[in-house]
Design brief:
Integral membrane protein, 13 helices, transmembrane helix, transmembrane, membrane, mainly alpha
């Protein structure tokens, strides 16, 4: 028990240090945004008989993604035989507030499932390290678009055809291609959540603004190509060409924000993924909310400014 308490105190101190690194000014903006997004998501889901079950599914999935990317799993495995029990307690503590909210709405089944599923995430293995590229097929994307190369090899090469096939099968329902675009965006968020080594930035030999512009142009071009079939299906249905154009523009804008968030907090992977999650949370949960235009303006302006500022510090120009 004492070792478990020491571990939890250590994790608390580490979380506090990460918050301090973000800075008080950014926390003054991000803190309320996090509270608004999380509370709105839970309050929207908890009162509904069907939507309540999304919470015990979505939260463990988020925990599983973060768990498999943890850099300290190998260290814990070699230094603490009971580390999975520690992780199970940690994840249970993280899920406890959401479970209590579900219980307040008398969603006892969903709350119990969440408290059972969240600790079970600790049993998952770590993500496999990159294997040798000797036998890999040549990618259709340029090597400098490494996020796309690695993302497709990591699951996108089979997920994208399935999304297009599903959107075509249910082409009469505008929700089908819209959901497919949302899933594809989430996969891209995972691709752009890992910072590349600093040598990949410095070897380009370009000023920060030109380098960032090329990254945006290349990635947005590939994003538009992969989204085009889904947008065509959307436009051929009840949504029409105008609806597809509006959705496509907003979708590409979100991809651009994911890229800006990556370089705004480069090379801190935790801050990058947290900011990207906030961007997607604002996009999916807050349309129609009175604060939505303000938060969107702050997100766009802040990420443009911070990404250029961070890249100038890294590239020196």
């Amino acid at each position: 028990m004492s070792a478990l308490l020491a571990y939890l105190r250590l994790r608390g101190r580490l979380s506090w240090r990460l918050l301090v690194e973000v800075g008080w000014l950014r926390m003054a903006v991000l803190g309320p945004m996090v509270l608004i997004l999380v509370s709105r998501a839970l309050v929207l889901a908890a009162p509904h008989r069907q939507a309540q079950w999304l919470v015990p599914v979505a939260l463990p999935l988020l925990l599983a993604s973060a768990h498999r990317q943890r850099a300290d799993l190998r260290f814990l495995a070699t230094s603490a035989p009971d580390y999975r029990r520690w992780l199970a307690v940690e994840y249970g503590v993280v899920a406890l507030p959401a479970a209590l909210l579900l219980a307040c709405f008398q969603d006892w089944g969903a709350a119990a499932l969440l408290l059972a599923a969240a600790p079970a995430v600790a049993a998952l293995p770590a993500a496999r390290e990159d294997r040798s590229t000797r036998h890999r097929a040549r990618s259709l994307f340029r090597s400098e678009a490494f996020e796309w190369v690695g993302g497709l090899r990591g699951g996108g090469q089979w997920l994208w055809p399935l999304l297009v096939a599903g959107a075509c099968w249910w082409h009469a329902y505008p929700l089908a291609p819209a959901v497919a675009l949302a899933v594809w965006l989430l996969l891209l968020a995972g691709c752009f959540g890992t910072p590349e080594p600093i040598t990949m930035l410095t070897l380009a030999g370009q000023p920060s603004r030109a380098w960032l512009g090329r990254r945006l142009l290349l990635s947005l071009g590939y994003a538009a190509l992969t989204a085009a079939p889904l947008l065509w299906v959307l436009g051929s249905g009840p949504a029409g060409a105008g609806g597809a154009l509006a959705v496509g523009t907003a979708w590409l804008g979100l991809v651009g924000l994911l890229i800006l968030a990556k370089y705004a907090f480069y090379p801190n992977a935790t801050h990058i993924r947290t900011t990207q999650a906030l961007v997607l949370g604002v996009a999916f949960l807050l349309p129609g909310h009175p604060l939505y235009p303000v938060l969107l303006l702050v997100a766009v302006g802040g990420l443009i400014w911070q990404s250029q500022r961070r890249l100038r510090a890294v590239l020196g120009s």
